[in-house]
Amino acid sequence: MNMEWETVIGLEIHAQLATRSKIFSGSATAYGAEPNTQANLVDLGYPGVLPVLNREVVRMAVKFGLAVGATVAKRSVFARKNYFYPDLPKGYQISQYELPIVQLGKLEIVLDDGARKTVGITRAHLEEDAGKSLHENFQGYSGIDLNRAGTPLLEIVSEPDMRSAKEAVAYMKRIHTLVRYLEICDGNMQEGSFRCDANVSVRQKGQEKLGTRCEIKNLNSFRFIEKAINHEVARQIDVIEGGGKIRQETRLYDPDKDETRPLRSKEEANDYRYFPDPDLLPVIIEQSFIDQVRATLPELPDQKAARFVEQHGLSPYDAGTLSASREVGDYYEAVVAALGAAHAKLAANWVMGDLSASLNNDGLEISGSRIGAAGLAALLARIVDETISGKIAKEVFEAMWADGQSADAIIEARGLKQITDAGAIEKVIDEVIAANPKQLADYRAGRDKLFGFFVGQVMKVSGGKANPAQVNDLLKKKLQGQGSL
Amino acid sequence: MHTLTLAGISAGIKARRFSSVEVTQHFLGRIERLNPALNAFITVTADQALAQAAAADQVVAAGKGGPLTGVPIAHKDIFCTDGVLTTCASKMLSNFVSPYDATVVRKLKEAGVVMLGKTNMDEFAMGSSNETSWYGPVKNPWDLSRVPGGSSGGSAAAVAARIAPAATGTDTGGSIRQPAALTALTGIKPTYGRVSRYGMIAYASSLDQGGVLTLNAEDAALLLGAMSGFDERDSTSVDLAVPDYTATLNQPLKGIKVGILKEFFGKGLEATTESLVRDALEVYERLGATLVEVSLPNLPLSVPTYYVVAPAECSSNLSRFDGVRFGYSCAEPKDLLDLYTRSRGEGFGAEVKRRIMTGTYVLSAGYYDAYYIKAQKVRQLISDDFKRAFAQVDLLVGPTAPTTAFELGAKVDDPITMYLNDIYTIGANLAGLPAMSIPCGFVEGLPVGLQLIGPHFAEAKLLNAAHQYQQQTEWHRRIPAGYA
Question: Which residue out of A279, A280, A283 would a mutagenesis test of the B interface target, given it has the greatest number of B Cβ atoms within 10 Å?
Fold first, then answer.
């Protein structure tokens, strides 16, 4: 039996909203504080306390909704999701259920082969995060850290529109880029600010009906998502081809063993008994507020990439790379602004090349770059005005990266200025030719390839500073016996 | 001194006829002497009360302070009080010392009020007789073999017995008005959203509302005014200025339209109670009111609607009592499930468990639409009925409770009969309307209450109507034998 299988994936992405305080209390949301130091009576679910909605989260959710072309609900409702767990102080999580704040959006993703695909976004709703259980040894007990309890989340639910792990990753990355563009989430996956659950099923190709799905919980790296989905797809196909049936269940991915294992089946699932939270009023959003938020929307990644292609003449690939993060785009644009749009390609090459490599080496974000946009532009300006060659520029860049001096200071101090004085270049050429009589004779006898040897020698003697175009020109004349020897 | 109203005590302190410390000592002495038979208090905060009184006396001595400076009252033990045991009359919270003050408590503190202690109640405010308290039932000062009503039964008994001049209460389905009726007090539940629920331990969030039990409408106006108002900590509190309720007490009632609620005079209402309520209507007629009979056809559905909505909310509200962070925790749990089931199984009483189970059931998958959603729809219909009625009349009037105070233990084993006690009071909670109960007579020595219901934020009108009635009648001045 050799059937063709189709994978169907939908993602539920949890983006932690970058507010200073929690969604329903004034506690700070900063990551990494001592356990339980950022939990007040509301977060602890003390008797009598009440939640009060942080307006900032509404603004952020609206921003997201507008960015994915969704409907922003004029009226959305917080509901209680009831279940018992020690890291859930109230015994219910405040979330949105029947009436989420963002409804029916979509997002275009670009696949490896350059093809584009639209993924539907069913909904995005606001909710509070739970705390964290610490299973280290507390004399046989579990510890609970409620710092995270009440942290605002935007849960972004996609349609089951993705057909491979790669598509799922492309979509996840696209959302990741978007939420950082919108400055509503820091996107830090290690700290859990951006994570997802994947709903995965398989079906025979051509079949309309969806297969039974499994939900893989808590995937917090792009690599894990891909591996977990691929593993899960293989498992499901194995089960079905072996004559078995997929049980609807929740599974956990174990990155150490590269496998998913069951957490709970549908039958064991909680009945969450959702109902509207009577402590919170429905969220009513006026059109004027939506308009106001729309006015604050930044240029979005696709818009930015299109502009780079149109205004700067970049390839779609380069434009896509440079617009993948708002900070990189801003940096690149600052360099172009200083250098002139005519040299956009040069700026793009340097930002994607030497700068990106150096940032990677040092594990830095572009915001922490040792060379600012103005500094890089000043360096590139020296290439443009032919003070230095592209090759020397790499040396200058490294020096700038190492000690933070300006390009001009390094060029000056190291005497790296390009030699453009014809007399000085001729002098070097004469020296080289005089020192290599055999090669000269061979060249003149027809071994044209030796031209490269002479160029190399001239550049070497000049310390790489001779203007390459002039060297070519003058050398050609001299070797052919023109001019004095 | 203990027969004085709040206004009387306030005037006495201001005129230096006595000090706040003297009044406070006097009431503390009465509590010590009379409370054991009544069981109205769970906690008496004598030291704190005397310190507050001494501070109030200094304020008065400096020529400062307001109408409530130095006046002692009691708080229902559902309100969180900083540094003081706050039990909700449950074993679950029998060790809970609140780390903060409820907004109501804070506001009254700021107004200079002295807290005598925390009053007994039905466990988590679930009950109509104050018999579900883990601290034992409260006795009605009018007849110690009878219940004082509930859930604010401790507050009612304390004020009726003059061991506290006034007390706070909460009303989810009648928990202020019904005990007020059964103890000859004035009790008001304001509009939902008028008084902050912050720090008021939640039973059914969409119905709970704080209020007061006092000796007359003037005291109610004074106290309610001080504890009302918008609170940014309670999203359901309403941002609307609080009028001076005392300023309009003496407005004439001539020309107002009073609606007689047809549905309140049917089967189940004791004839003796009915006749006293009809007498009260005559008083209003003499005061210049026009009586109009109005019908609220959906009102008879109040009780079943309430017993879906309130348990649903309570089943979720009480989930936080899990033995993990505060309150009762079972001894030596085997594992997490054991910790949960035994802490809750041992910490909650039977009525609380009954409502948690009912609520869990009506919210369950497959039953939600049939119960919870349907109840919400009926709730809306009841609200609409009231809205239509208030397009015709200024106030609605009827009995507060179908009977006078019943014997302790009489209805304990029959929850349905017990629930029917709130048949007249629940409607106002479902519709979020202000409502009050005032004494309108006695049957065989037991008080009967008259209920007034107004449109949203018509507290001033209710208090005005109550005060005018009390200018014509003496029922509210009666003191139970042995407590004068």
Answer: A279
Cα separation, A318 vs A305, whole angstroms: 8
How many angstroms away from the CA of A380 is the closest CA of chain B? 56
Q: In a mutagenesis test of the A interface, which of B93, B105, B233 is the best target, namely the one with the most A β-carbons within 10 Å?
A: B233
Tell me how far apart the alpha carbons of residues B121 and B210 are, in angstroms, rounded to a whole number: 14
Q: Do A52 and B235 touch (CB under 8 A)?
A: yes
What's the CA gap between A77 and A95, in Å, rounded?
Answer: 9
Q: Tell me if residue B189 is catalytic.
A: no
Active site residue B151: yes
Q: Is B205 on the interface with A (CB under 8 A)?
A: yes
CB contact under 8 A, B319 and A271: no
Q: Which residue has the higher pLDDT, B405 or A432?
A: B405
Å between A349 CA and nearest CA of chain B: 54
pLDDT digits (tens, 9 = 90+) for A4-18: 999 999 999 999 999
CA B407 from centroid of its chain's CA atoms: 21
Pairing of strands B435-443, B446-453: antiparallel
Look up residue B411 and give its two tokens.
């209805």
Name the residue with tokens 């089946």: A265
| pLDDT mean over A189-214 | 93
Report the range of poorest mean pLDDT among A465-474, B193-202, B306-315: A465-474
Domains located in chain B, CATH noted: 6-251+435-477 (3.90.1300.10)
Give B16's Cβ-side CA count (13 Å radius). 7
pLDDT in tens, A300-311: 998 999 999 999
CB proximity A284 to B under 8 Å: no
> How large is the angle between the packed helices B6-14 and B46-61, nearest 10 degrees?
50
**Catalytic residue, candidates B19, B20, B76, B107:** B76
Residue of A nearest to B362 (CA): A273
B354-357 own/partner pairs: CB under 8 Å, 24+ apart: B354/B415, B355/B126, B355/B310, B355/B311, B355/B314, B355/B315, B356/B311, B356/B314, B356/B315, B356/B318, B357/B315
* Single-letter code of the amino acid located at B136: G
DSSP A297-328: PPPPHHHHHHHHHHHH---HHHHHHHHSSHHH
B172 CA: distance to closest CA in chain A (Å): 14
Q: Which of A247-256, B303-312, B328-337 has the lowest mean pLDDT?
A: A247-256
Burial classification of residue B203, based on how many CB atoms lie within 10 Å of its CB (0-12 exposed, 13-18 middle, 19 or more buried): buried
**Average pLDDT of chain B, as a whole number:** 97
**H-assigned helices in B81-234:** 103-110, 153-160, 177-182, 217-227
What ipTM was assigned to the predicted interfaces of this complex? 0.96
Could you tell me the pTM of the whole model? 0.89
